[in-house]
């Protein structure tokens, strides 16, 4: 009961600071953030929100995002939704002013959206919206898979391990269906029709079908095929809605949607998507086996900027494809090193600014989350506003990524069975080709290298004389650039980590 009261208190503290129930148009959450659609952005009190104890930061994107952290956001969101419903019911007359509020905030909202409304970023955001809801299941099944593998290797609980294997594998066997469902929903079609078409890909009976001179195999094309099939189904459905008479719509539209999309999927998309998926796996293996250290250095070093630009979302289907093919993604442990560089950089900032208790307090409160892979508080509260420490954090991530990449090049693959967590939270999801002990040791070594490199780079090169003089005497919080520039960081995540959190 105490926990429920705490979550409700957090929701109650947030609601008036975002303009009240009448100002909230939509509510959703990802791995770490409460995402709100608002009628009038000017009614939000950013500074007061940041002062709420449970709030780690705010991010301005296509929605207004309040960073609460993993676990907390899933508990606060239902309480917030209930408070909004209660507020709308008790303020019925005020609800009539929603259009007026929307009109007042339209110009500001359009200005904020324009920064991140390029076609490419909008496409990536849609991709993230498809895959981010799947992350909790990927994490849960991934941890069970790791536990099952450990028990099998030890020869323990042999009567239980088959059940654990079924739990771990069931979702992955049908992930194409969930991708199809979410894709149709995201692109404006009927979700169940998208799932129905995508289900063709994993149906065992496709093994009796010949296409392009070869027999299809269940699961061929994977999530990429499911995504393509569902998008096609949406377009076929919309075409049918325009041309099929209303009296026949309920019968003809679903039939033609599944029939046309299904035939194209079987005799085209499954083959093409299968080839693309195989190429992705082959390229990832080649990249890390031939240029592992260099590739890891670049991937680990540039991941934080990718997050800031929202481009990391393009990696989500790649991670999922690798997990489908190989059982783990070799990219995520390397990208997770960006978070290690961030932690090391924050530790150096703490020591370099002994007189600035405001920044040091922020670091103390955000460091545990950073160690567990939730990087937003340290990024938006410390390194990014200061400038140089953000760059030196990237240097730490580069060295950590290079360390893990080097071992991949030497034949020790280090991967993750799910996407989402990073930092210490990734340990239960680690897998590789040379045993769990070796995999854990390499990943831990990469974290250590990232911490040390980020610390050293920041301590010696992270501050100019002017910057050090300015912030080593100030007791005011670091001026956040989030509201001003609105850096995007998904979903997830990330995040990561959202997916591929930092």
Task: Give the gist of this structure.
This is PTS transporter subunit EIIC. With about 500 residues, the chain is α+β, with helices and mostly antiparallel strands. Helices cover about 65% and strands about 5% of the residues.
Outline the structure in words:
With 502 residues, the chain is an alpha+beta fold. It has 3 domains: 2-119, Glucose permease domain IIB (Gyrase A, domain 2), CATH 3.30.1360.60; 133-286, no CATH class; 309-498, no CATH class. The protein is built from 21 helices and 10 strands. The protein has helices at 2-17, 46-51, 72-90, 92-95, 98-114, 119-131, 135-154, 161-173, 175-186, 191-202, 222-243, 246-309, 316-326, 331-335, 337-352, 357-371, 376-386, 388-409, 436-461, 465-471, 482-485, and strands at residues 24-29, 33-38, 57-60, 64-67, 210-211, 214-215, 414-416, 430-432, 493-494, 497-498. Strands 1-2-4-3 form a 4-stranded antiparallel sheet. A hairpin with a 3-residue loop joins strand 1 and strand 2. It is globular and about 70 Å long. 50% of the residues are buried. The model is unreliable at 92-112 and 476-502 (pLDDT under 50).
SSE topology sketch:
Elements: H1 2-17, E1 24-29, E2 33-38, H2 46-51, E3 57-60, E4 64-67, H3 72-90, H4 92-95, H5 98-114, H6 119-131, H7 135-154, H8 161-173, H9 175-186, H10 191-202, E5 210-211, E6 214-215, H11 222-243, H12 246-309, H13 316-326, H14 331-335, H15 337-352, H16 357-371, H17 376-386, H18 388-409, E7 414-416, E8 430-432, H19 436-461, H20 465-471, H21 482-485, E9 493-494, E10 497-498
Antiparallel strand pairs: 1-2, 2-4, 3-4, 5-6, 7-8, 9-10
Helix pairs in contact: 1-3, 6-9, 7-8, 9-10, 9-11, 10-11, 10-12, 11-12, 12-13, 12-18, 15-16, 15-17, 15-18, 15-19, 16-17, 17-18, 18-19
Subcellular location: Cell membrane
Keywords: Cell membrane, Kinase, Membrane, Phosphotransferase system, Sugar transport, Transferase, Transmembrane, Transmembrane helix, Transport
Membrane topology: Multi-pass membrane protein
């Amino acid at each position: 009961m105490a926990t429920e009261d705490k979550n409700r208190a957090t929701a109650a503290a947030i609601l008036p600071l975002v303009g009240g129930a009448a100002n909230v148009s939509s509510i959703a959450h990802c791995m770490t953030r409460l995402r709100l659609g608002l009628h009038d952005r000017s009614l939000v009190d950013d500074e007061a929100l940041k002062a709420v104890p449970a709030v780690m930061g705010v991010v301005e994107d296509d929605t207004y995002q309040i960073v609460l952290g993993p676990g907390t956001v899933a508990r606060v969101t239902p309480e917030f939704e209930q408070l909004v419903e209660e507020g709308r019911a008790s303020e019925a007359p005020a609800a009539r002013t929603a259009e007026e509020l929307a009109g007042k905030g339209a110009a500001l909202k359009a200005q904020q959206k324009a920064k991140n409304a390029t076609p490419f970023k909008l496409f990536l955001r849609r991709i993230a919206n498809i895959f981010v809801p799947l992350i909790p299941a990927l994490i849960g099944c991934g941890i069970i898979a790791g536990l099952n593998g450990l028990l099998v290797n030890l020869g323990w609980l042999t009567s239980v391990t088959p059940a654990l294997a079924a739990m771990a594998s069931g979702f992955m066997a049908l992930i194409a269906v969930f991708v199809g469902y979410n894709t149709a929903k995201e692109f404006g079609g009927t979700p169940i029709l998208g799932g129905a078409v995508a289900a063709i890909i994993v149906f065992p009976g496709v093994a009796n079908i010949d296409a392009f001179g070869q027999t299809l195999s269940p699961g061929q094309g994977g999530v990429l095929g499911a995504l393509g099939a569902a998008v096609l189904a949406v377009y076929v459905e919309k075409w049918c809605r325009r041309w099929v008479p209303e009296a026949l719509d309920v019968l003809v539209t679903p039939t033609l949607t599944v029939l046309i999309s299904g035939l194209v999927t079987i005799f085209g998309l499954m083959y093409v998507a299968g080839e693309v998926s195989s190429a992705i796996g082959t390229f990832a293996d080649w990249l890390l086996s031939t240029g592992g250290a260099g590739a890891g250095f670049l991937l680990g070093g540039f991941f934080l900027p990718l997050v800031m630009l929202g481009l990391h979302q393009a990696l989500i289907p790649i991670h999922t494809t690798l997990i489908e093919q190989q059982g783990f993604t070799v990219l995520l442990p390397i990208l997770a090193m960006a978070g290690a560089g961030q932690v090391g950089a924050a530790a150096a900032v703490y020591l370099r600014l002994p007189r600035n208790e405001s920044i040091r307090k922020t670091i103390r409160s955000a460091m545990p989350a950073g160690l567990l892979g939730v990087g937003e508080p340290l990024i938006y509260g410390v390194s990014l506003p200061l400038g140089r420490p953000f760059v030196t954090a990237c240097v730490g991530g580069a060295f950590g990524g290079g360390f893990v990449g080097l071992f991949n090049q030497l034949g020790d693959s280090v991967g993750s069975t799910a996407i989402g967590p990073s930092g210490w939270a990734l340990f239960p999801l680690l897998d590789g080709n040379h045993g769990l002990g070796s995999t854990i040791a390499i990943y831990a070594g990469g974290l250590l290298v990232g911490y040390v490199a980020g610390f050293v780079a920041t301590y010696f090169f992270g501050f100019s004389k002017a910057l050090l003089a300015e912030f080593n005497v100030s007791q005011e919080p670091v001026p956040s650039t989030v509201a001003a520039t609105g850096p995007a960081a998904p979903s997830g995540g990330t995040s990561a980590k959202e997916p591929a959190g930092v």
